[in-house]
Write a structure and sequence with these properties.
The protein has about 190 residues and is mainly alpha-helical. It has one domain: Orthogonal Bundle (Arp2/3 complex 21 kDa subunit ARPC3). It is built from eight helices and two strands, in the order αββααααααα.
Length: about 190
């Protein structure tokens, strides 16, 4: 991964953390359950930067959610580890899907982006289920009721549906595309 991709992953991870904080502070649904739009930065990183950039952005974007739902929430230290891993899975999967579909080279990219965004969340969804039903009880003791786990997963799917529409709009926007693609263009210095 070159320095441009590292910088892009850091920026998108930071964007994810800021989006999480805004949605966390304004969108509390219940104690320990809040809206989380941090994956927008992760999806952007994966679609434009590829699997490794998406993975790195996901790890970074999971830091503040990991703190809020981990040590400051009910998840303890496990939350600080589990949330970044889940978001990293989404970033990796997004990059792999974008690469497999050759998304940047297609016409009508936004039509493909919405379902690709939904598909990219599946590994994190499976991980989230395993985290709440297996890992959290194993390390923290006590089982969460299945109704709570399904509420968390349904909330996450609702968020991903909203984010898939946002991603389709962003990827279909020429100005946004030119802005992000300019980040990855290699410029050759002129000779003096």
């Amino acid at each position: 991964m070159n320095t441009k991709n590292i910088a892009f992953a850091i920026m998108m991870g930071a964007l994810g953390n800021v989006l999480f904080l805004i949605s966390y502070l304004t969108g509390q649904i219940a104690q320990g359950i809040a809206l989380d739009l941090s994956l927008i930065g992760v999806f952007i990183a994966g679609f434009y930067g590829g699997p490794i950039t998406g993975l790195a952005a996901g790890l970074i974007a999971g830091i503040i959610p990991g703190v809020m739902f981990g040590p400051l929430g009910n998840g303890g230290a496990l939350g600080l580890i589990g949330l970044p891993i889940g978001k990293a899975l989404t970033g990796l999967t997004t990059g792999l899907i974008a690469k497999a579909l050759k998304l940047q080279q297609r016409k009508h990219q936004s039509l493909i982006t919405a379902p690709a965004t939904l598909l990219a969340y599946i590994p994190e969804g499976v991980f989230t289920y395993a985290y709440f039903s297996l890992l959290l009880p194993l390390f923290m003791g006590g089982m969460l009721p299945m109704a709570v786990i399904f509420t968390i997963l349904l909330k996450a799917m609702g968020e991903v549906i909203v984010m898939s529409v946002i991603m389709a709009a962003l990827i279909g926007n020429t100005g946004f595309k030119d802005f992000v693609n300019a980040h990855f263009r290699v410029t050759i210095p002129k000779e003096k």
